Amino acid sequence: MKKLLILLLLVSCTTDVYDEQPIQEVPESLFMPQAVGLKLESYIVQDKVRINTKLPSDGDYRIKILDFTNTIVNQEIIKGKEGDNILNIYVNSLPVSAYTVELYTINNSFIGRQNFSMN
Amino acid sequence: MRKLLFLLLPLFCLAQDLKLDHSYTNAEDFAVGDTITIKFNTIQVTEDVDPNLYIFDYEYNNKLLQKITHRFKVTDNSANTNAQTSLTHWDGYKYKVLSTYDEDNLSAQYLHGWFNRSQVQGDTNSYPTDSDWSVERITIQDGVGITYNNTLIEVDFKIKDKINTNYSNYNNVTHLNWMRAEDNSTSTQYNVDAMQQKITLSSVEGGDAGSVTINLKTENDKPTHYKYNILSNNNSVASGNFDANSQAIVTGLENDVKYDVNITVDNELASDWLDDVVTVTDVFLVFKEAIGAGASPGGSANTFTHAIQYLLGEVNNSGNVDFDDSYVMLSHIMDENVSEYFTSSTNGAKDVWGEKTQYGYATDDYYFGQKKHFTPTDSNKVFDFGHGLIGDVDFSHSFEPIVEDDDEGVARTPSVQGKIENLDLDISTSLVNDKVELLVELEKDYLAGMQFVIQFDDTILEFEEVQFNTGNLLTNFATERDNKLYFGSISVENKENIKTGKPYKIIFNPKQTITNTSGLIYFKTTDAVTSDGTKVILKIQ
């Protein structure tokens, strides 16, 4: 019995070590029911817009911005984590127009697409 | 019964939820010059369908209608006073309906005909170029449902005279292309059909048979930056700017009277692109011409294939195209302006123009084919004029003379525009150790010159440096002007090409905390040339 108590005491005093991942809070406006994809907080943009890139796994991904003629005018490579990743698209350097945003894996496999217009 | 339900289910799923309509608000009996107003609105078909996001494209025939202005009306409606609105305009494109879906099924045309068009095998381009049409994209979003039956937007147009067009009537002058209607809070997309998809103006009277059309011919996509001045006996009788469709419609001219026309770039409007006219391709072509390299280095043949390139490449007023001209142009891309005789933001535009069929072909009467006059007659009221810019030997911003058989019956080969190559390129930005890095990755080693112009958000980024890894014999350059960065390389002696790998790394310091880099840098223009003088279009992948 004493041995059991000592054992229980040792177990209760052991510190559990978790590989803790910061949990990113997803605002309702960027919530996505799908397992993966891309969502914009607004479809009319000034200055910048928040986006949710929901990814299948940790790794490098491409965010491409295309103009009306489907020419890539900006491309970012991000280090993403599995699940929701809240990021920004800054638009002040872009000419005022309408654009398409596309999300790809680093090897250019398509994940999601959205479009926005600038004011 | 269950089988019947299964059979009916697809019909319910495909049912339309709402309609998009557009119609003119004016009384009929139109005349040329009249202003018409076209209103757009939605009509509810299915109950409890409550979209709060509308994005739709429509197009209009810009040869028959001239857009004047637009007014969003959705915010006049008490339920949608906080709605956000946006309108984007493009000239020179026409929607290609995806024929596997009904033309009036606007939501299917959106989803398959535009949004996912890249996945349609053999028919991936939803917006081919068409100079007769202009496209507008309207976006409306609100926190609450956008009400039906109320006008969303009104657009005013002026009816143009069809006399100088290829159209015999005013049928189908507008077209609804596609629409996305969505409840953004639940990502529910609704089915939209077109009500009146195209507008026809059935009876348009009048028209000024005396109007003359001047068409501007240029590779430049900024026709509104070009001015015309029509003179009779050295007195100006009409002047203005070309419209977005590269046209000037001029009235008040007389038949059988010879008029001179001056076509010049408005330096103030063009200040943003004048420095993009002369690039590494122009430098390289002039250099090759100067050494008489022809199709391969070391020869004695000509590189130029149009006579007018000798005028466009003569940038120091010496009378010849030689090494000094290539030096002047090289200095320009390295941010040194050492001559006043070529097109740049410092010098302004140096204009060359002439009637299209004569332009570029010299005669005793017309220096390098610059026939600068026209004579309207009863049967001819449309005149085309080519325009070029001194320094632009690759015709990137200039009209390339039309190809015709010469006296010996041999077809002249277009010099640059006719033999352009494409090259895939990887350019990307990323956040590395709290700095923004832009990387260019190149897989082929046949480029003798390459140039980039990027525009960055200077409220957030500060340019730090360019790291070159291009090769030992290359001349590299990087210049910051306002919020633009010009950088690249050229093999001046044509002895070494740009190395493959990562020839350029650009580093910026963020002025504030940023989460990532999307949109901070705009890839404005690129230009490249191979060692044999072929212009290369860099396609970013």
List descriptors:
heterodimer; A: 119 residues; mainly beta; five-stranded mixed β-sheet; three-stranded antiparallel β-sheet; 1 helix; 10% helix; B: 541 residues; nine-stranded mixed β-sheet; six-stranded antiparallel β-sheet; 9% helix; 39% strand; globular; disordered N terminus
Account of the 3D structure:
- The complex is a heterodimer of chains A (119) and B (541).
- Chain A has 119 residues and is mostly beta strands.
- Chain A has one helix at residues 2-13; strands at 37-40, 44-45, 48-54, 59-66, 72-80, 86-90, 98-105, 110-118.
- In chain A, the strands form 2 sheets. In chain A, strands 2-8-7-4-5 form a 5-stranded mixed sheet, with no helix packed on it. A 3-stranded antiparallel sheet of chain A has the order 1-3-6, with no helix packed on it.
- The longest helix of chain A has 12 residues, at 2-13.
- By secondary structure, chain B is mainly beta.
- Helices cover 9% and strands 39% of the residues of chain B.
- In chain B, helix 3 runs antiparallel to helix 5.
- In chain B, 41% of the residues are buried.
- Mean pLDDT of chain B is 90; it is low at 1-13, 295-299 and 409-413.
- The chains are: A mainly beta (119), B mainly beta (541).
- What is the CA-based Rg of chain B, rounded? 27 Å
Instruction: Give the overall average pLDDT of chain B.
Output: 90
Q: Approximately how much helix is present in the residues of chain B?
A: under 10%
What would you call the structural class of chain A?
mainly beta
Taking pLDDT < 50 over at least 5 consecutive residues as the criterion, the unreliable ranges of chain A are 7-15
Give the fraction of residues assigned to helices of chain A.
Answer: 10-25%
Largest sheet of chain A: 5 strands, mixed
Poorly predicted sequence stretches spanning 5 or more consecutive residues of chain B = 1-13, 295-299, 409-413
**Multimeric state:** heterodimer
Strand content of chain A: 35-45%
Could you tell me the number of beta strands of chain A? 8
What is the overall silhouette of chain B?
globular
- Biggest sheet details of chain B: 9 strands, mixed
Count of alpha/pi helices of chain B: 5
Relative strand content of chain B: 35-45%
Give, in spatial order, the strands making up the sheet with the most strands of chain B: 25-28-23-22-30-29-24-27-26
Q: How widely separated are the two ends of chain B?
A: 53 Å
- Annotation field: number of helices of chain A: 1
**Annotation, overall tally of beta strands of chain B:** 30
N/C terminus separation of chain A: 75 Å
